[in-house]
Amino acid sequence: MTIEEEKEFRQKITDTILPLAINMTEDQIRNIILTVEKENSEILEGFGAMLFEQIMVQKYNKLKRNI
Questions:
Q1: 3-class SS at 43?
Q2: Which is nearest to 40 in space by CA: 25, 51, 53?
């Protein structure tokens, strides 16, 4: 991924996933990602782990700022 693609990826997470994930547990988020991976064989191996990591980083950064 280029730097621009990474920025766009993070922004998409912030705009679309984070509003839902902010009120979910880690297990709930992980289970959704695993379910989507199982149902979509075209998703590259490791993408789910990367997505989960980015969601958690952004989630806890946002929660930390709100304290």
A1: coil
A2: 51
Q: What is the DSSP code string of 18-42?
A: HHHHTTS-HHHHHHHHHHHHHH-TT
12 half-sphere exposure, CB direction, 13 A CA radius: 7
Measure the CA–CA gap between 39 and 16, rounded to whole angstroms.
Answer: 20
What residue type is assigned to position 26 of the chain? E
pLDDT in 10s for each residue of the chain, 67 residues: 799 999 999 999 999 999 999 999 999 999 999 999 999 999 999 999 999 999 999 999 987 887 6
> Residue 9, Cβ neighbours under 10 Å: how many?
14
